[in-house]
Amino acid sequence: MTSFLSLTGIAKTFDTGVKALGPVDLNVQSHEFLSLVGPSGCGKSTALRVIAGLLEPTEGTVSFASGKPETAFVFQEATMMPWANALDNARLPLDLKGLARGEANARAGRALERVGLGGFEKSFPRELSGGMKMRVSIARAIAAEPKLLLMDEPFAALDELTRQSLNDDLLKLWREDKLTVIFVTHSVYESTYLSSRVVVMTPRPGCIAADIALTAPENRDAHYRLSAEFTAQAAKVSAALRDAMQAAT
Amino acid sequence: MNVFLRYAVPVALGIAVLALWEFLVRHFDVPVFVLPAPSAIWTALVENFGSLMTSLWTTLSVTIEAFVLAVLGGLALAILFSQSRAVENALYPYAVILQVTPVVAIAPLILIWVGYDRIDLVLVIVAFIVAFFPILSNTTLGLKSADHNLVDLFRLYGASRWQILWKLQLPTAQPHLLGAMKISGGLALIGAVVAEFVAGSGAATGLAWRIVEAGHNLEIAKMFAALALLAGLGIAIFSALSVLEWALLHHWHESAVRKTT
Question: Do B149 and A79 touch (CB under 8 A)?
């Protein structure tokens, strides 16, 4: 069976001589929710940018089963255009693809509604809270109906409650749109809650230290966060992360 | 109340200073060719209203022409710089040289090259040289200040260079450009005045020449009247550009956000 996405011997050394990543071999299946977990500076973000095609790897290849899929990227900062309102921001990918304005507005409006921002179309970024800006950022990502969603510590700067509510909304989008998600985080709990699979990376240069398949129920909620099943899986991820850190020192 | 005070206090201060000036000139019997009283300046303004207004219009049109050319030229060159590092490296030093060389020193050369018979063109060129650099420098900075993550996002969605320029770099540079325009508007006026002084003959008929002419004839009140009009012109240009800046930025940019506390 060919994977949705395959990384083969991916390594990245920057011009400064810093060896950031690899070599990494990784296969991602369609509709997987995969988290990359590791310490800061372990090359998680670099890996994400290589997959997106924003960064050329020094070695190795990225291949997709059926050509490069429609890809969306969500950054740690909401990364909105401050001069444009929420609707115009969410519409950006559609504008760049040259979609007719009416059709693009309808789709961007629908995306905003799906992330719970119906009625905020005309709001400018400075009028929105951090959580709401991140929702616009997610709306922009799903507006172009991607197959692959890449997220680089998107909720790291948000408070715990906002983060949990965005976690649940993200899972809903993942299920409904049959997305394949690669999610970078340094939170063990967040990765355990969200993922169907967690890949633990070593400190720089980032290599894969552990590859853990999780058995989470399809419908996760606040109860699941407190269940013994969740705690056991989080402990497994946490132990793997500790091992990876110790092996490096 | 706050708004009222913001305007009332400076106006009251201005009136008080004028009144004191008037009083001191009359009390100490200061000769009119040393320091005319505000009332004498007002009279000179009214008596010479026709010729002063014609001169005002001459200076204003030179300033506007130079300013518009500076904005268009500066913006165009900044866009070129943002598209090609090689062009920027090649041309930027010369733009700096043009900027740092005192315009009073260049003006006579331009006068010789362009000729006394095309004096208006000389004035526009000199004013343009002075007003051009802030536009170029700030807009170049602005075009380069686009959020790197947004640039990545544009690239991810296959945006063309043109789309990145139009939808990302130019909006990012808008506050820089508008700030530079406020500086350049005033500089264009200064450039026009300097050029008129350098031209220094009846060929140039703007406000600066009225000042020179009135000085030669010891009509000091008329000098002050022309000076007041020049200052008024500068304030009007600055205000107009401030209004433009507010109109374009107030709904999104931090600089124009009204503090609610």
Answer: yes
Contact B159 A126 (CB under 8 A): no
A83/B168 Cβ within 8 A: no
The structure tokens listed for B228 are 């007041």
pTM: 0.86
What integer is the mean pLDDT of A178-185?
Answer: 94
Q: Inter-chain contact A81–B168, Cβ cutoff 8 Å?
A: yes
Going across the sheet that includes A59-64, the strands are: A19-28, A5-13, A59-64
Distances from the Cα of A219 to the Cαs of A39, A182, A215, A225, in angstroms?
29, 19, 12, 12
A124 min Cα distance to partner chain B (Å): 7
What residues of chain B lie within 8 A of the CB of A92, using their CB? 153, 157, 167
Range(s) for CATH 3.40.50.300 in chain A?
Answer: 5-69+147-248
Contact B150 A71 (CB under 8 A): no
* Residue of B152, B158, B171 with shortest CB distance to A81: B171
CATH C-level class of A5-69+147-248: alpha beta
For B57-116, write each residue's pLDDT tens digit.
999 999 999 999 999 999 999 999 999 999 999 999 998 998 888 888 888 899 899 988
Structural domains in chain B?
A: 42-251 (1.10.3720.10)
Q: Give the tens place of pLDDT for each residue, B23-66.
A: 999 999 998 888 999 999 999 999 999 999 999 999 999 999 99
Instruction: Express each pLDDT in A114-123 by its tens digit.
Output: 999 999 999 9
Q: Which stretch of DSSP H or E encloses residue B226?
A: helix B220-249
- What is the Cα Rg of chain A in Å? 18
Which pLDDT score is estimated for B261? 39
- The three state secondary structure string of chain A is CCCCEEEEEEEEECCCCCEEEEEEEEEECCCCEEEEECCCCCCHHHHHHHHHCCCCCCEEEEEEECECCCEEEECCCCCCCCCCCHHHHHCHHHHHCCCCHHHHHHHHHHHHHHCCCCCCCCCCHHHCCHHHHHHHHHHHHHHCCCCEEEEECCCCCCCHHHHHHHHHHHHHHHHHCCCEEEEEECCHHHHHHHCCEEEEECCCCECEEEEEECCCCCCCCHHHHHCHHHHHHHHHHHHHHHHHHHHHC
Question: Which string of DSSP letters, residue by residue, matches B6-19?
Answer: HHHHHHHHHHHHHH
Q: CA A222 to CA A241: how far, in whole Å?
A: 24
Q: Is the dihedral of CA B108, B110, B112, B117 positive or negative?
A: negative
Å between B236 CA and nearest CA of chain A: 28
pLDDT tens by residue, A43-94: 888 999 999 999 999 998 998 988 889 999 999 989 999 999 999 999 999 9
